[in-house]
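Lecture notes, unit on protein representations.

Consider one protein chain, 293 amino acids long.
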Amino acid sequence: MQLRTLLSVALAATLAQCASLVEVMSFGDNPTDIQMYIYVPDQVATNPAVVVALHPCGVTGQQWFSATELPSYADSNGFILVYPATTHLSNCWDGLNNAASLTHGQGGDAKGIISEVNYTLSTYQGDASKVYVMGGSSGAMMTNVMAGSYPDVFEAGAAYSGVADACFAGTESATPASANQTCAQGLSHTPEEWGNFVRNSYPGYTGRRPRMMIVHGLADTLVYPAAAAEALKQWSNVLDVPWSKNVTGNPSAEYTQEVYGDGTQLQGFFGEGVGHIAPPNVPVMLKFFGLIA
């Protein structure tokens, strides 16, 4: 009986230590009533890094948590995952309003996401110099928005099948059902014009800008590959890094890597035969972020 009791206690303790995705009900300024889910590994690092993961349209934060390998890498490397979630616009993010998410400090989903970051950094003594953002489809679009509107918060971002920052500015909706799909089909601007959209998102800001990774499938018929080419034009201008070379077969046979400068500031990946959404290659992303070797 005593052994059985000890085993039961040990099992209960083990289960109690099992990390899981948890909803946070109150985390600060939240102008659009978005949700927050957080994953804190059992063995969290001292002053942990924070990765914000933004879901696609029609997907919940919980579903995006299960859609990539990020949780297992958080377990083995001790960083924290934050999964914001929106229930508006068919679960699409609001990267279209200049008076809200597209401008630093002005509101929208973006300001709620920043509140979630600040809550996490404060609650878990996170490293404010190691905050990253990634997302797929609408989440990728919002990744570019976050990097543009809040360059002081994010060290780097990775966008999978998205569009350039402010591409949807002024439209009535950023959903796949919207009548205006000009942005998703490859709205074109000069690099300088795209760069100005980013710079105008935070007037007067002169600090460092987030490093960026742009990934897209060449067989994407929902968000055209041209949209990724425009995003690369944008960040090449903002980061002042010209294209330097292409590397075929990296990270796998169907992909071609586009390297800008020495590749530490900006990279693009285009996948032959890859549709929507280009699957996040988590090890490649985390190496670019600098979270794994």
